[in-house]
Write a sequence for this structure.
């Protein structure tokens, strides 16, 4: 076992594999004198495990053994014995090669402005390794370096290493533990094939891309001076870069590309890559409003879709709509890609490519970036890798001091957490940009992992065109004013090489300007969109349509209930789970009423049986945070899992449920993206506790609640947010119901508080069967999951439907004798009903409002027909007065009570915190609010 553990440790260590030639001589020096090596290496070697303490380790390496064997063979063959000094030099040559692989990027020419001064690296100087003078004319074995023959003159080798690792591309990949991935990158960077020249036709395409990028910005600057456009100028290479990326993706089998980016350069991408008509953009600048009924959004938030012709066929492009929250669009893009892959039934292919475009300060500063990196290889969220491009203009808003924007050398260092290769490239060298883009895509397609391209450029104007950048970056902008544009830089280079004439450069400029004047599409690869695999037509134009059938026969429900309780013989369940399933089977057979978990699971069974797909993610979703769901059964004998809902019938819909990564913001954004690309079926995000949605508030505010108004994007995402006051303290009591109600307008979402198992059954089915797609926010229960009173009959599931409001159900309450009507939602109903029963109160009716938005005016008014004589109405809630539904929904309550009636509040007093932290205080408060709601003052 000890040898196996040592072998596993050694194989995973960064001291092994391709790095051996560099590390072993250092380790030999350490064995002779620990103080002879750098302190960082001494710490690493000190921590190496000791295999046999009783035997001191000897100084020897495989490389020396190799040369010893070579010398012996040479001697036997009559040749000359190798020179020990030359052998030592050979080791130093291999160290030099590895030094360039590790740190060559620090000497690369990456900054177009020449302002970025990186620390000089001694290890990249041959003299650091004792290589100098005559050594440069000697032939050395170059080991795994793939620049040509097995041996090279040292002088030629150094030139080759500089050309590979220290020119316009700086490659960081030696942090990757996979030897296969490192060697793959080395073969692409170091081989002679890596520098094959581009054809004149290709170079003209690159020049056309740079001309388009610059031409649009200058045109907009002249036509709409001072208007915000978040210019791409300085990072113009992004346009030929994206086009080259899409072309290569199409050649490699991609059928769809989904792009996410913030403001910088977005208008340029819309026009020069996706093919949006320039006339439409000019109209937006001129303030002409489209015919859409919604609020609309600023032009640099808009999305777009088109088809793009490649050698591999047309590729569908989609640029995701994006609010002002910078990096938040990244998980949205990945969710959309996952939905498209699932729909194609090819999750492990390269058919759908995600591209995310970042800002240099944002990628390092926004936490959602770390969350999406962490999700990249997780089961629920993997999409086969993402090509991540950083438009690195070296300025964060108005901050150009690196010490103020991050704590790392590069803004892309965050990618190392998932061992993504990172390619830094000088944006003024468009050919290097295209080469590294092709390399990045091929890596992504080969290894299904994320890859980063750091496009190092500059920002010719301020943060926006009305900003004055010299105020905070005087030296940088003095340099920028004198610096030629990327288009001019490349055109001058081609003319100097005699590959193009000035007349051709002028012709390209003039033709692009004429296209802009015409107001049409300027992308020659643009093609009219063909019909795609998702169709939103059935879900358009429906506003809370009730024409759907949610009924199911009891026989069918019993059959499906038995199927969802089946699991293989020998699949040993944990004792508590086994009891849940035994009880669930009794419920299905009608021997007892159904609890929450049984009804919820039965809703899923009916939907997949009808061919609908279901996707559920959340922390502990498989079992349920409160131990109620258990749709994933864990074998206690071998830890295998079985999901009965995957085995309902052979033609059923897909059922997927995942315990997600410990994230709210990125996961919720991911699921939003998923549902915007997949209208059919049920997609659920479940918070472990309702207050966890606090960490995803930006997604709720800027996507869920307003996406339809701003962008016309429909979304049927369901949020299950555990909510209820049960003495668990301030954080785990409230899902902040009031925040959702504050966001409600224009029928943008549904906010429901179901109080019975049958209600959750019909609510989930309604979300799928009703031909309308809007978010569903559910204040889901905790204690009600096992409350004996919170049960439903099979008949209520079979013949019922979701009730937006529930009338008084106690047959002993005579409407004519009612003097007070209490309205409430959620768990507090059961506290009110129990106290009323104990106190034998007969003159108070309790009405449950199960859907708080859209408020069910007609339904409640129908119920209140029995209480037109009542003048005393109360809204009772568990939440403090400044929270919950009281302030946000009070205007709805007034519209449904009889004319002349009064309405008052019963509940906790206003509070800065959602709940108290002491159980005794909680109980006293709860009892007080229940008594207040039920007790009629005889003096009033």
């Amino acid at each position: 076992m000890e040898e196996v553990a040592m072998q596993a440790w050694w194989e995973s260590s960064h001291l092994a594999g391709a790095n051996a030639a560099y590390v072993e001589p250092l380790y030999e020096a350490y064995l002779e004198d620990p103080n002879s090596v750098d302190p960082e290496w001494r710490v690493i070697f000190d921590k190496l495990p000791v295999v046999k303490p009783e035997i001191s380790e000897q100084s020897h390496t495989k490389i020396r053994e190799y040369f010893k064997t070579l010398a012996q063979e040479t001697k036997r063959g009559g040749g000359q014995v190798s020179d020990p000094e030359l052998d030592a030099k050979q080791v130093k040559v291999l160290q030099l090669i590895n030094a360039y692989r590790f740190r060559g990027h620090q000497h690369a020419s990456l900054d177009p402005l020449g302002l970025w001064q990186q620390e000089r690296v001694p290890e990249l100087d041959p003299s650091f390794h004792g290589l100098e003078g005559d050594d440069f004319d000697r032939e050395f074995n170059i080991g795994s370096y793939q620049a040509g023959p097995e041996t090279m003159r040292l002088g030629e080798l150094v030139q080759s290493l500089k050309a590979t690792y220290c020119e316009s591309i700086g490659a960081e990949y030696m942090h990757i533990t996979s030897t296969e991935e490192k060697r793959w990158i080395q073969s692409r960077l170091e081989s002679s094939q890596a520098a094959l020249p581009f054809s004149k036709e290709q170079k003209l395409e690159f020049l056309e891309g740079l001309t388009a990028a610059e031409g649009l910005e200058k045109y907009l600057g002249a036509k709409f001076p001072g208007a915000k456009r978040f210019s791409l100028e300085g990072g113009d290479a992004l346009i030929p870069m994206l086009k080259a990326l899409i072309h290569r993706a199409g050649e490699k089998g991609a059928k769809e590309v989904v792009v996410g980016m913030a403001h910088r350069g977005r208008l340029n991408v819309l026009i020069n890559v996706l093919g949006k008509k320039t006339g439409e953009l000019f109209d937006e600048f001129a303030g002409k409003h489209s015919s859409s009924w919604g609020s609309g959004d600023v032009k640099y938030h808009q999305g777009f879709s088109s088809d793009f012709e490649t050698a591999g066929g047309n590729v569908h492009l989609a640029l995701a709509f994006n609010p002002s929250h910078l990096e938040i669009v990244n998980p949205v893009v990945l969710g959309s890609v996952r939905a498209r892959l699932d729909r194609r039934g090819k999750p492990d292919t390269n058919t759908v490519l995600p591209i995310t475009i970042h800002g240099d300060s944002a990628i390092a500063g926004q936490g959602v970036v770390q969350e999406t990196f962490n999700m990249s290889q997780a089961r629920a969220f993997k999409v086969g890798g993402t090509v991540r491009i950083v438009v690195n203009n070296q300025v964060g808003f108005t901050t150009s001091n690196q010490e103020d924007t991050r704590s790392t050398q590069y803004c892309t260092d965050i990618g190392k957490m998932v061992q993504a290769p990172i390619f830094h490239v000088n944006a003024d060298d468009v050919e290097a940009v295209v080469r590294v883009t092709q390399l990045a895509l091929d890596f992504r397609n080969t290894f299904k992992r994320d890859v980063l391209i750091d496009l190092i450029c500059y920002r010719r104007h301020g943060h926006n065109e009305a900003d004055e950048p010299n105020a905070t970056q005087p030296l940088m902008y003095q340099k920028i004013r004198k610096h030629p544009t990327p288009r001019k830089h490349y055109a001058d280079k081609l003319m100097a090489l005699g590959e193009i004439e000035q007349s051709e450069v002028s012709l390209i400029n003039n033709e692009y300007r004429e296209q802009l004047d015409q107001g049409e599409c300027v992308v020659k690869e643009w093609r009219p969109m063909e019909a795609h695999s998702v169709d939103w037509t059935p879900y358009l134009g429906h506003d809370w349509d009730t024409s759907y059938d949610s009924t199911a026969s009891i026989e069918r429900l019993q059959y499906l209930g038995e199927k969802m309780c089946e699991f293989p013989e020998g699949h040993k369940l944990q004792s508590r789970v086994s009891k849940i399933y035994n009880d669930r089977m009794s419920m299905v057979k009608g021997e007892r009423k159904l609890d929450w978990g049984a009804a919820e699971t039965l809703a899923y069974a009916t939907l997949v049986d009808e061919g609908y797909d279901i996707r559920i993610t959340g922390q502990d979703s498989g079992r349920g945070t409160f131990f109620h769901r258990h749709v994933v059964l864990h074998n206690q004998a071998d830890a295998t899992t079985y999901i009965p809902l995957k085995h309902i019938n052979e033609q059923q819909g897909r059922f997927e449920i995942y315990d997600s990564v410990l994230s709210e913001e990125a996961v919720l954004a991911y699921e939003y993206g998923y549902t915007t690309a997949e209208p059919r079926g049920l997609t659920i995000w479940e918070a472990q506790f309702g207050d966890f949605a606090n960490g995803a508030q930006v997604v709720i505010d800027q996507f869920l609640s307003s996406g339809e108004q701003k962008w016309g994007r429909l979304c049927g995402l369901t949020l299950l947010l555990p909510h209820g006051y049960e003495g668990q303290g301030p954080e785990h009591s409230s899902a902040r119901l009031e925040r959702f109600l504050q966001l409600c307008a224009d029928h943008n979402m549904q906010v429901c508080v179901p109080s019975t198992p049958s209600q959750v059954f019909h609510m989930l089915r309604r979300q799928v069967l009703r031909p309308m797609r809007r978010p569903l926010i559910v204040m889901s229960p905790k204690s009600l999951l096992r409350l004996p009173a919170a049960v439903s009959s099979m008949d209520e599931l079979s013949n019922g439907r979701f009730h937006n409001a529930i009338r008084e159900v106690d047959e002993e309450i005579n409407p004519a004798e009612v003097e007070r009507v209490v309205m409430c939602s959620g768990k507090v109903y059961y506290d009110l009903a129990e106290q009323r029963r104990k106190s034998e109160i007969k003159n108070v009716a309790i009405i449950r409002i199960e859907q708080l938005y859209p408020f069910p005016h007609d339904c409640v008014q129908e119920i209140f027909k029995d209480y037109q004589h009542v003048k005393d109405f109360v809204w009772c809630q568990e939440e403090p007065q400044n929270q919950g539904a009281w302030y946000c929904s009070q205007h709805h309550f007034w519209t449904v009570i009889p004319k002349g009636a009064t309405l008052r509040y019963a509940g906790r007093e206003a509070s800065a915190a959602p709940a108290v932290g002491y159980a005794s205080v909680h109980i006293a408060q709860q009892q007080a609010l229940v008594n207040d709601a039920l007790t009629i003052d005889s003096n009033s």
